[in-house]
Amino acid sequence: MNFSLPAELLEATRLTKAGQLTEATAALQRMLGAGLPVNSVALQARHGPPTIDGMVEGPEMAQPKLAPPGNKTFSDAVEDPAFRIKNKLIKPVLANSLRGFIDQTAHGGFHLPGGLAHRAPTPIPADLPNGAEFLACTFSNQAGSRPYKLYLPSGYHGQSVPLIVMLHGCTQSPDDFAAGTRMNAAAEEHTCLVAYPGQTSSANMQKCWNWFSAADQQRDAGEPSLIAGITREVMLDYAIDPRCVYIAGLSAGGAAAAIMGDAYPDLYAAIGVHSGLACGAARDMPSAFAAMQGNGGPAPRRARTAPAGSKPRVVPAIVFHGDKDTTVNPKNADLVVAQLGQGASLRKRVEKGQAAGGLAYSRVLHVNANEETVVEQWVIHGAGHAWSGGSPAGSYTLPRGPDATGEMVRFFLEHPLPPGMHQK
Given pLDDT bands bounded at 50, 70 and 90, which one contains residue 22? Predict the structure, then answer.
């Protein structure tokens, strides 16, 4: 059966490709009889650009395992195959075409093979080691509420230990991210706690951290206040060494980790940014699209903050990025490194290597006068937008790459917070 698309949808698609998002939105709303507000079609900042593709970028990237029926996690259920607009069921062909437009718009004009972004399946939960716990928690403050998962390793018995905060990417969940990164296994080996804040679909339709929103880039405001609040809550409830608190993330989570390191240099001793962007790389959706495509220009200089009576510091960081990433342009890794090293006299030392899985990499060490590595940058050759060395149990992982989790933990434990810097 032939099914012709509405002229407004075709026009909206043309306008989107031309970068005219406002006009495209108006065309789409005309088609729907003004039945949907802008934010219901993923066009306002809170529903902003997803930074993880809905399609796997290459044969080397792992497909996640499916969860058994009825398994409940932080992930939302997959949407129905047809939209309901004004209580009317829209035919699946039109629904799919409309979703294709929405997905393309949300991706800033990127075309994904196969059209629609799919929601990543939730991994099958792994059995916990004897004595370990993986707790479901919630934190609330004036900025809202967020769920989070907290991993307590079997070796934790109330002694002072490090804490690592992990920020997932778009469409992911704390459970998915934990499975894909295998950070809980690293926590078992090194006896540290791991917190996984969870973004909600009500805060961002694709469950992206809102790294591109000016309101979510400030200390003790918006999403930074929620992430820092989760960190502080864990530090209050458990015996955490205040000099050994770290934060890392993938894609939108990596961009959020860069923001947290900039806003809270007295809370986080070091940060990890995987396939992310520099703090302040975008202030709204148009600048976010430009930054993701590598057209955002140099990273802005940031005013370094520090507790009263102490000196500002360069926050140590480890940065991973695939040089074939088509979702977040690899140029962004260089901008992250440049921003982190601002004001420091660092020189570079380059090492080459190959992961056990076969992918080659370049490791650039930015060292100070004392030969201490302040910023460590890994470029994975031939890699797309995925967690390097991750497990196929989670989404957006690259098992053949170098072990980003192991290298991040190693880097973190080598960089405690300087004495007198941590918050009281």
Answer: low
Q: Which tokens hold the place of 308?
A: 């009263």
Query: What is the Cα–Cα distance from 133 to 50, expressed in whole angstroms?
Result: 31
- Secondary structure letter of residue 62 according to DSSP: B
List the alpha helices (DSSP H) in 191-243. 222-237
Distance CA 131, CA 74 (A): 23
DSSP 164-186: EEEE--TT--HHHHHHHHTHHHH
Alpha carbons 298 and 310: distance in angstroms, whole number: 28
Give the global pTM: 0.75
Q: Which residues, in sequence order, are CB contacts of 146 under 8 Å at separation 6+?
A: 138, 139, 140, 197, 198, 199, 200, 203, 226, 227, 230
Q: How many CA atoms lie within 13 A of 187 on its CB side?
A: 29
Distance CA 271, CA 255 (A): 11
pLDDT in tens, 210-243: 999 999 999 999 999 999 999 999 999 999 999 9
- Neighbouring residues of 58: CB distance < 8 A, sequence distance ≥ 6: 324, 384
Going by pLDDT thresholds of 50, 70 and 90, the confidence category of residue 345 is confident
DSSP 97-147: HHHHHHHHHHTTTPPPTTSSPPPPPPPPPPPPPTT-EEEEEEEEETTEEEE
**In sequence order, which residues have a C-beta less than 8 Å from that of residue 248 and are 6 or more positions away?**
164, 165, 166, 167, 254, 257, 271, 272, 273, 274, 408
Provide the pLDDT for residue 342.
76
Write down the pLDDT at residue 21: 55
Strands 373-380 and 347-354: unpaired
Distance from CA of residue 358 to its chain's centroid? Answer: 25
Domain chopping of the chain, boundaries: 7-35+79-106, 133-413
Tell how far CA 173 is from the center of its chain: 10
Architecture of domain 133-413: 3-Layer(aba) Sandwich (3.40)
Query: Which residues, listed in sequence order, are joined to residue 348 by a DSSP beta bridge?
Result: 366
